[in-house]
Automatic annotation (TrEMBL):
Keyword line: ATP-binding, Nucleotide-binding
Protein name listed in UniProt: Protein kinase domain-containing protein
UniProt source species: Bicosoecida sp. CB-2014
Domain Protein kinase: 50-128
Positions with biased composition (Polar residues): 1-14
Residues binding ATP, per UniProt: K77
Biased composition, class Basic and acidic residues, residue ranges: 19-37
One Gene Ontology term of the molecular function aspect: ATP binding
Length: 128
């Protein structure tokens, strides 16, 4: 195998990102230099997330499966693997920070980010 994510089962066997990458960002900074401070997003070790084979959705940017995280049912978005570059990872993190900065009681909550190149993902609130 080439190490890419073929099935959600493989999401449980990854090593965590380096300790210096556990917290992600101080908030979202737009091009004008303004900053909206948001709580830090957290890296989550793939081994702490149980990803089932229950498909919730699929799009051009990834596939969403039902999962479990800290005893709570969640949605796990697994970004479609590409030959990821550092720029791709930075864009993914920037998008997550931007989305996280907009969160309120009416938006889907992001519980954390998953990264094991070439696989990236987000742990999201499950909406039924």
């Amino acid at each position: 195998s080439d190490g890419s994510l073929d099935t959600p089962d493989r999401a449980t066997s990854a090593s965590p990102p380096p300790p210096d990458h556990r917290r992600i960002g101080d908030g979202y900074h737009d091009d004008a230099g303004s900053s909206d401070r948001a709580p830090h997003l957290q890296w989550v070790d793939w081994e702490h997330v149980e990803v089932t084979k229950t498909l919730l959705g699929r799009g051009s940017g990834g596939t969403v499966y039902r999962g479990m995280y800290h005893g709570e049912e969640v949605a796990v978005k697994i970004v479609t693997p590409f030959d990821l570059t550092e720029v791709d990872v930075e864009r993914f993190i920037e998008e997550a920070l931007w989305t996280h900065s907009l969160q309120n009681e009416r938006s889907v909550q992001i519980h954390g980010l998953l990264l094991r190149p070439p696989d990236m993902g987000m742990i999201l609130e499950l909406c039924e």
